[in-house]
Amino acid sequence: MALPASGQMFGIASGEIEMSDGYGKSSVAWYGDRGMIAGGAESTGYYVSVNYYQYYSITTSGNAVDFGDMVDRAAHTGSCSDGSRGVTAGGIHYNSQTYAWDIIGYVTIATTGNATDFGDLIDKDYSVTGLSDGSRGIFAGGRDRPGYRNFTNVISYITIQTPGNASDFGDLVSADSRNFWANMAGCSNGTRGVFGGGGAYSQTNIIQYITIATTGNATDFGDLTASTAKPAGFNGGDRGIFAGGETSVGGTNTIEQISIPTTGNATDFGDLTVVMDNPGASSNDTYGVIHGGYNVNTMNKLTIATAGNAIDWGDMVFWGLRWIAMTELSKKIDITFSLSAISADKINAAAVAKVNEHLPELAEKTRAFDRQNSQTTISLMTLTMMTGHSPYRMMRQILAEVEKRKSSLAESQVRHAK
Predict the structure, then answer these.
(1) CB 80 within 8 Å of CB 129
(2) Dihedrals φ, ψ of 30, to 5°?
(3) Confidence band (pLDDT; 50, 70, 90) for 211?
(4) Rounded-to-integer distance, Cα 252 and Cα 92, Å
(5) Rounded to 5 degrees, what angle do the CA atoms 394, 328, 154 make?
(6) What is the rounded distance in angstroms from the CA atom of residue 54 to the CA atom of residue 346?
(7) pLDDT, tens digit, for every residue of 278-303?
(8) Which candidate, 41, 188, 48, places its Cα nearest to that of 127?
(9) What is the pLDDT of residues 361-372, one digit of tens each?
(10) In sequence order, what are the beta bridge partners of 280?
């Protein structure tokens, strides 16, 4: 697959999903440690949609890694997950006269590979927002082509484990401007799905919600602290997070929070390390990872339960894209097992010594790659990645794999020292 040079990134995330046991509490949670990034568009004087998937670990810092390809090229898609299957819907194909897609595709999150066709949305739309309750996937809002003020307030739904076309769920709340129905962020606590912000030509502070198990129209929830389009959304349990996006004066690094079961206005949570206009995000109940934005490949991490600023978490493999993201959601179960103690004579002392000797040098050598280049230089170098087999692309992929193994060695080294 050809790689882009420079451009923009966009993202929506599903967040952690909880299922009620019918007695007002959560008995089972779906979440996982693999975050996925899908689709996007490069800009080399004009936009060209791409079809890449990437994935990364939410708990272990490091760069994202190539996963596979989407059903077709698309940017501005919506996404959701049930723990084993990740679904993307809609999107814009800048390379085609068709522009907006109604395509729904899916992947098995635990297994790298290409996506499979799932079905179709009700309409052809992009700038769609997705979320789920661990079984039912929701796609809301969007628009049909750039330059046209043809926006939709339609909410549709699917059963994630049953391929087929989407069905009508209801409508978003009425808005002062129809363009507010596009580019929202979404989050869910398993019962209630919440959409925050939105806008294509201007921005809104509207927060609205639905009850996922019951079809019907959205209801007003409250307001964001500022009118914001294109934020990233995710959650941990009942706390919903909206991060980054675009305000009337440009991109923002603001992070806001809500309590999903309690209607009301959002409050300040903290700041991202950089401005992220059009970011994506994923969460695993404890941590949230926010990534990308216009001309940004940075990944940030925060602890959802504790308000504060985000920290740097790594880089995406392919930068200069507009992305959506979906969290891997997995069933949480309790397993009891025992292992016999490992005695000192069973540890490979030579291997431990080798790790202790070479790990610092490995960290130092890999950290230097790309750091001496400016964004402009990197952008020009990335043009060579268009061939699909350039040395620069292969080096970035190799370093991403090295980073994963380096992190594992470092963790093992610490455990052994203890």
Answers:
(1) no
(2) -110, 120
(3) very high
(4) 24
(5) 110
(6) 38
(7) 888 889 889 999 988 777 888 999 99
(8) 41
(9) 655 555 545 444
(10) 291
